[in-house]
Amino acid sequence: MAQLDHHPISLLSRNSLIFLLLVSLAILGVFLHWGRSPLFWFPNTSSSSSFPVSDWRDYSLAQAAKFAAKNETVIVCAVSYPYLPFLNNWLISVSRQKHQDKVLVIAEDYATLYKVNGKWPGHAVLIPPALDSQTEQYFGSKGFFNFTSRRPRHLLQLLELGYNVMYNDVDMVWLQDPFPYLEGSHDTYFTDDRTTIKPLNHSHDLPLPDRNGVTYICSCMIFLRPTNGAKLLMKKWIQELQDSSIDLEGNDQPAFNWALNKTAHKVDLYLLPQVAFPTGGLYFKNESWANETKGKHVIIHNNYIIGYDNKKRRFHDIGLWLVDDHALESPLGK
Predict the structure, then answer these.
(1) Cα separations (Å) of 67 from 44, 63, 150, 322, 326?
(2) Could you tell me the pTM of the whole model?
(3) Which numeric CATH code is attached to 48-329?
(4) What does the sequence similarity comment in the record state about its family (predicted)?
């Protein structure tokens, strides 16, 4: 009789346990799904191997910017797989200035997308079409132009989303924090690519064109605020790239300069100080100037030279190739 009394209780307990188990599994499934989302919290030690490839393929620029932006600001670079060591070198210098968390890498191929997100989840996004990951896109090549010509579209989209945007090429090294130099509330900040030495108190207006009607503003270091002026400049840059009737020789910079000159009366422009943001043609090729202005340099651009090995060697010769001895300072590690 006692056994009959206990049987219903045992059956009820078993059913309750099964119900609780099913509820627990359902809750666990929800958390696993959230944990796979690029917008979920990512520790830097995570690996994307636990995330399906389709998650990163579907990761949008809007999602990526929301994840990476800090104080409504995102630092953007565009990288193809052969240049990952330069990305790492640049990231070390950015990390030393405590700004690495707001970096967003626009991957130009899927190999870069998976490699960066595998070591640093959420900080890389790919906007199709993807390039061939095995080809070095050297300056002047068709592949180089294919992704640099997309740059203003990416920047415009980020501005439309409401973010301040700093764009850098990854053949740069930060020696100081550049943000204190972004004085005022101008629409667009940029650097001069000329090697002519300017006075320390030079004008911050757009330089006058030369006798051929040309200015030489660098399109490799730009800061934009999400204003109508900055958006207008990006739209004009896109238009100039589309409408160009001359061979740009794989370089989007002439179109950027045309856009600057044609919108100067509508956009609040600010030329950054040469001593802080020198072109590579001045910093690397005028040793006396570099020595006289030592301690005032903020971002060094390794331009005025073509080729991966040449750029690497030049950085190495002056102690700015950091990845060999300081790789662990980068979010990507070795």
Answers:
(1) 13, 6, 22, 27, 26
(2) 0.81
(3) 3.90.550.10
(4) Belongs to the glycosyltransferase 77 family.
